[in-house]
Amino acid sequence: VAKAQGKNRFQFFSEAIDGKVRQDLRLESALRQALENNGTGLWVAYQPKLCAKTRAVVGVEALTRWRMPDGQVVSPGEFIPVAERTGLISALGDCMLERVCTDLGVLRGAGFEFPTVAVNVSSHQLLQGEALVEHFCDTIAAHGESVCRFEVELTESALTDARGATVLEAFRVAGFKLSIDDFGTGYSSLGYLKRFDVSTLKIDQGFVRDLPADQEGAAIVIAVIQMAHALGIDVVAEGVETEAQADFLRANGCDVLQGYLLGVPMPVSELAEYLHKHRTLAKRVLAGHPI
Ligand code: C2E
Ligand code: MG
Ligand code: MG
Ligand code: MG
């Protein structure tokens, strides 16, 4: 009986794995097709980053979104790993940067500018070497944009790899700002903060989630802010969902807030509206009026 059950269990697992493999293959071929088709179904959602003190919009983060031909919306958590495994990530990255540049032009046409636009770059993209940086620079220049408005968000894994390090340095020399994403969740030493000219640390949402009640989380957040500031690095808190979190972060010197409380990732058409509303709000806060 045990043997039969063991066999059933094996069958169950192997079916589950089959299902995952099939789903990944389906995603891979649909993504390949989308990329060959000028990125049909792919678009960029922008999430605002706000000054913790004044709530002025200091920048936005570009986050990729994908609606498959059958209408199903797939999250980056699902398709980015597939893109990384299959090498489609470079084409995806190129496609997104093109969109971001186009969207910036649209926003400027509507009368909006903000200091920085952050794009996520996965450590797999760094395998392209310095050609990646050249390509980024060329795309940005072709759209008449300036590299210094761009920030690349990288996770800690990008910093521990020697090849990645060279590319990071090339990004920095070209004028991009460097931002460490999901700070505190990776395996790495703090030495890289000294080695690279990092402009921003993004505290992972895992440390923000249970603030202010979570004493350990609070201690980590306070320590990270102090360390970053001592090194001349700005701090962004990710995943801010409540006013209590925002109050705690602001009171402890966190520079920038990002999260559903302040703005969800939105298409460029909604971003224009959001920026318009926030321009007025920021003016009110600066003038000492409550929001
Ligand atoms: P990330 O760069 O750390 O982005 C933050 C994620 O948290 C985003 O998920 C965002 O929608 C979500 N988020 C923002 N505010 C809140 C909040 O208040 N609460 C909660 N629970 N979540 C919040 P998303 O858009 O699903 O992206 C997931 C990850 O996929 C990103 O993490 C990033 O690593 C990656 N990614 C997204 N777009 C791209 C891309 O174009 N290229 C690359 N290489 N990676 C990308
Ligand atoms: Mg990010
Ligand atoms: Mg993050
Ligand atoms: Mg993340």
Automatic annotation (TrEMBL):
Q: Which residues form the EAL domain?
A: 24-279
Q: What is the lineage of its organism?
A: Bacteria, Pseudomonadati, Pseudomonadota, Betaproteobacteria, Rhodocyclales
> What protein is this chain from?
GGDEF-domain containing protein
Q: Note the superkingdom of the native organism.
A: Bacteria
